[in-house]
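Re: that chain you flagged

S.,

Sorry for the slow reply, it's been a week of failed gels. I finally had a moment to sit down with the sequence you sent. For the record, here it is as I used it:
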Amino acid sequence: MSANILEISELKDPQRILEIFEEQESTAKLDKYEDLVWDVYQKVFVAALIVKEDTLAKKCWNRLNDRFNKSPRVDGLYGMYLEATSSFDDALSYYNQKLFEDPTNTIIHKRKLSLLRSVGKTIECMNGLIEYVDTFYTDVEAWAELADLYFSVEAYEKAAFCYEEMLLLQPYEPRIFAKLADANFVMSKSNPIHLWISLKHYCRAVEISEAYFHAWYGVQQCCEAINKLSKTELKRIQSRASEETLNILADSVKVEKLLKLSGKKVSELTSQDESLYKLLAA
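Prediction finished late last night. Pasting the C-alpha cells below so you have them in one place:
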C-alpha cells in the first residue's frame, strides 16, 4: 500500500512528501485521495517552498487556483509563494492590494502581519494587530499574537489587557488565566501587589484544570515571593491598595496553605513526568 501524503507533516519531513508525490503523480495514484487531493496539493505546495522547489510549488498553486479561483486561501498561498521567491516589498504590495479589494479577508490580514513580524517590523505588526482586533474582535489567536508582541517589548500591562480580552471570549481556558498570571508576576517586580493578582489567576487556572503544572508552579512561586516580603512592605501595600484590591489579598494563613498544597502538587506532577523534573532542575 502506497504512503499517504496527508499523514506526513510538511514541516517535519518536506522532502519525503515531495518524493511520495512525484511517485504517486507519475503512476496516476493521486486519484485515491478523491476530494482530498486538493489538501495534498496544498501540503506539497508548502513542502516545496520549504525545500526551495519553487517550480513545483507554482505548479501546485496553479492547480489549486484553477479549482478555487479567487478563494481567500489560495490568495494567501500565493502571498506565501511571493514571500519565498520574491522580495519583501513585492509580497507586501500584493497583500495591500488584496486588502484594498477585500478588507474583510482575514487570511490576507494574517499573512501580512506574519510577514511584518518575520522581518522584525514589530511596531508595524503591533499596530496592524491593534487595527485587526478592533475589527475582528473575536479572533482569539490575534489577541494572543498581540499579547506575545507586547511581552517581547516588555509592555506587560498591555499584554495583560490582551489576556483579559481573551478571557471574555474563552472564560474557561486555563492557559489564558496562566498567561495573565505570568504577566502579573513579571509586573510584581516593580509593584508587589501584582503577586496577589497573579496568585488569584494561577488559582483559577488550577481550579479549571487540576493537573496543570504551569499554574501550580506559579502558585508556588507567588506564595514563596509573598512570604519573602517584610511586614513593613506588607503594611505599605495594604495602605495603598484600593478596596477592590484588598479583597484579593490572601492572608498569611491562606498563603501558607497554598504554598504547601502547590508544593505537593508540583512534586506529584514532576514524579509523573520526567520532563517536568528536568525543567525544574535546569
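What I noticed first: The mean pLDDT is 92.

Talk soon,
D.
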